[in-house]
Specification:
Largest interface: A-B, 39 and 39 residues
Radius of gyration of chain A: 18 Å
Oligomer: homodimer
Number of helices of chain A: 11
Shape of chain A: globular
Order of helices and strands of chain A: EEEEHEHEEEEEHEHHEHHEEEHHHH
Largest sheet of chain A: 10 strands, mixed
């Protein structure tokens, strides 16, 4: 089993959806990635930062899921990163109501000694300079570096982002972000252009419309599981990335064929994430439920067809 | 092999896309359905109506594809149905610039004697009363009746539409239409509600986001093939329906498992339709090209995963 290093926010979120709203609850890219990857029983550790206001019980919850939190710096006198957003009725778009960077503003990530040789590195959504600073601290070249990012960094730190994108093997972004980064509307052409920026693998997340994996002229598609109700989409993309990275860390096989399975696992886990507010569902999803839903994915996507020459 | 009866418009279209525009060219739901189904070498016949302005060579082209046009009434003194539309830059939305019903206004469909015992009936987009009038003329209960419709009929003839929907086995509509017809946003819930209206099978077409087949609590999903360029989406939904119906007519197997294949064949043929203006690509697509792309669909969707108990 490979060691998985996770970088990203550990945060407070306040979320409003058509189904209700929350006060400040646990959120953050690294939180979702860590919880998702924990379903593969891998040795994973988070590099992040929180303020003195962050409850120790949240960190304990992550540790209970076997996520190492040694790399989560606690700035006693600081406040934790806070994001607040409101989803529209279609759940596909949202307004950001508040973004308070707080301790993130001057974050210098420090990778714990025993994660400097991680085989798989998942650079979750954060300033590209922070993502890069993590890569620079590694003692060995990882087997696979995966980067997730957002349009926000394309807007304010595009050059820094392009520098770190050069160094990664896989990039996971959503469809609109792929279009923004490449300047191309067609996702096929966008993936090609992003491929030329560095990553050998490009994963384009389309939310309820599934995810596409592109590599070297090949493409693989995983749908999102059709659900009766999407309660809260927050963290679904990070949960996808965490499942993707966690599965690859567990299986130690980074072939394209195995990445197809990683995409399915990511989609599968994301389908749970959206069923409750925040991380609630991901904290208690069981192995049995996960397997059951993998069987549903198989029914949803697999068919028998003989194609004659 | 089953006989396939196709009802729908045979028309003139004038299309504008970001790539260019056309004068009046051949269009119509039945045209696309017939051309698509012809790839399965089935005995198919169209019931429709055109005006005296409709070129005989268009009908000849359909006959060259072994589509029987005996049931296409020619109203010498009338004008052919004309639709004109302009696609937006994203190709997912369009404005209708003109709709001239012309000979469609007083159309009384007449099913040719030798198609009254068709095993598969494809009711393409037309007034629900016309679709119903065709069903009333059949001498035997078909093995499978498939209905395609549009939001237009939900707006102006909802009760007539609901009456004919009661009588069909499969309905194919797009996502927005499914939402309008059911009053539900979730496509899973929408499919359930539409199922309760009559059809045992509900196909929801999502354009570039693929198609979902629902039946009795089960779901199957086929993506659209990711393309570098969508040139003209006109007729893609009809081409999908024609491929779906044609494949079922050819294989004479209306099990859910075989319908999965029918959905793949429909998506596959639709991927060609959008590559050129109007029916151009569907007039010359070859068996070899179709098979090649079925292999691409397999690569795109199929994976090997063992799921332990």
């Amino acid at each position: 089993m490979s060691k998985l290093l996770i970088v990203g926010t550990v945060a407070f979120d306040a979320i409003e959806t058509p189904f209700g709203k929350t006060d400040k609850i646990l959120g953050g890219a690294a939180t979702y990635i860590g919880l998702s990857a924990s379903n593969f029983d891998v040795d994973s550790g988070i590099v992040s930062v929180v303020g003195g206001d962050f409850p120790e019980e949240y960190l304990q919850m992550l540790r209970n899921h076997k996520v190492d939190t040694t790399g989560v710096e606690i700035v006693k006198e600081g406040k934790t990163f806070f994001w607040s957003g409101k989803y529209h009725n279609d759940m596909n778009s949202r307004d950001t109501l508040a973004t308070e960077l707080n301790v993130l503003e001057n974050f210098n990530p420090i990778v714990p000694e025993n994660y400097k040789n991680s085989e798989i590195v998942m650079l979750g959504n954060l300033h590209p300079l922070v993502q890069n600073a993590v890569l620079e601290q590694l003692s060995e070249k990882p087997k696979l570096v995966i980067l997730d990012t957002m349009n926000f960094w394309m807007d304010i730190a595009l050059n820094d982002l392009k520098e770190v994108i050069k160094k990664v093997d896989v990039i996971t972004i959503n469809d609109e972000e792929a279009r923004q980064l490449s300047g191309e509307y067609s996702l096929v052409v966008a993936a090609k252009k992003i491929h030329e920026m560095g990553p050998k693998y490009v994963v384009i997340k389309k939310g309820e419309h599934g995810a596409l994996l592109f590599h070297d002229g090949q493409a693989f598609f995983a749908p999102a599981l059709p659900l009766e109700e999407v309660f809260d989409p927050t963290g679904a993309g990070d949960t996808f990335a965490g499942g993707f990275a966690g599965y690859l860390a567990k299986t130690e096989d980074i072939s394209f064929d195995n990445m197809k399975n990683a995409v399915i696992h990511g989609s599968n886990l994301a389908s749970f994430c959206v069923e409750k507010f925040g991380t609630e569902r991901m904290q208690n999803v069981t192995e049995k439920e996960i397997k059951q839903r993998l069987l549903e994915f198989r029914e949803l996507t697999q068919y028998e067809m003989s194609i004659s020459k």
